[in-house]
């Protein structure tokens, strides 16, 4: 017998799952809502602990300190109410003088939230587009040379080059000179050149025979005779000859 006959293997369908037959203890999970009574925990504030310690150490000063604490609390409450009312009134009545728009959540202009690094509402309002449009922007000075004689002459008559107005004491002239355009062609002034797409093709020269040339020659002679008669015609001579 071979070694394969000595070893017996269980068929695959009869093999048991790994861990089968091992007894395990049941796990009791804690439910989500516990029916056990909740234990109320009392928290003692630090102020009461300090007062208790002062009563034990300094029994005479405890009453005076209690009176001072009550007065301080009432004063702080009154000041808090008055400050909140004043702050609300200031917020309601705060209107920008430049753009006439309300500013909400008024804060100090230099106050910045350290956590979010965001500026205050007033600085955000000053950076808004509506406020920036209403501002009077400053313009750079004129680029004209101050040593020019023409500028000195105009300035002597009251013209300010930095006023951004036209020529003249009252600024009624043009503000900028007329822009020149280069003229690269040799055409006359006012002649409009046709566009590249509008250029027509040259017509072919038609050749004529002898008969057509003779007719054209006779037509030209009649035309020249008529023009000569119109130029050199005299009404008195025609009236004398009876032509008129």
Automatic annotation (TrEMBL):
This is G-patch domain-containing protein. PANTHER family: BAT4 PROTEIN-RELATED (PTHR20923), G PATCH DOMAIN AND ANKYRIN REPEAT-CONTAINING PROTEIN 1 (PTHR20923:SF1). Transmembrane segments: none annotated. InterPro entries: G_patch_dom, GPANK1. It holds the Pfam family G-patch. Residues 146-194 form the G-patch domain. Residues 64-85 are annotated as: Disordered. GO terms for molecular function: nucleic acid binding. It comes from the Eukaryota. It comes from Lachnellula suecica.
């Amino acid at each position: 017998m071979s070694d394969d006959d000595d070893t017996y293997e269980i068929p695959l369908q009869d093999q048991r799952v790994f861990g089968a037959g091992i007894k395990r203890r049941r796990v009791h999970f804690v439910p989500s809502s516990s029916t056990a009574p909740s234990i109320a925990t009392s928290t003692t504030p630090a102020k009461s602990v300090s007062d208790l310690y002062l009563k034990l150490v300094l029994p005479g000063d405890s009453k005076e300190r209690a009176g001072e604490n009550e007065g301080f609390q009432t004063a702080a409450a009154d000041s808090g109410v008055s400050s909140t009312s004043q702050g609300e009134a200031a917020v309601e009545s705060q209107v920008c003088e430049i753009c006439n728009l309300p500013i909400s959540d008024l804060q100090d202009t230099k106050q910045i939230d350290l956590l979010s690094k965001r500026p205050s509402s007033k600085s955000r309002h000053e950076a808004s587009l509506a406020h920036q449009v209403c501002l009077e922007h400053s313009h750079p000075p004129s680029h004209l040379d101050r040593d020019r004689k023409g500028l000195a002459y105009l300035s002597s008559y009251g013209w300010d080059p930095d006023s951004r107005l036209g020529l003249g004491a009252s600024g009624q002239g043009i503000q900028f000179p007329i822009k020149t355009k280069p003229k690269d062609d040799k055409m006359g002034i006012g002649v409009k050149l046709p566009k590249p797409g509008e250029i027509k093709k040259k017509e072919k020269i038609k050749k004529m025979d002898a008969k057509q040339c003779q007719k054209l020659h006779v037509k030209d002679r009649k035309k020249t005779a008529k023009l000569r008669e119109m130029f050199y015609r005299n009404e008195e001579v025609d009236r004398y000859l009876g032509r008129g």
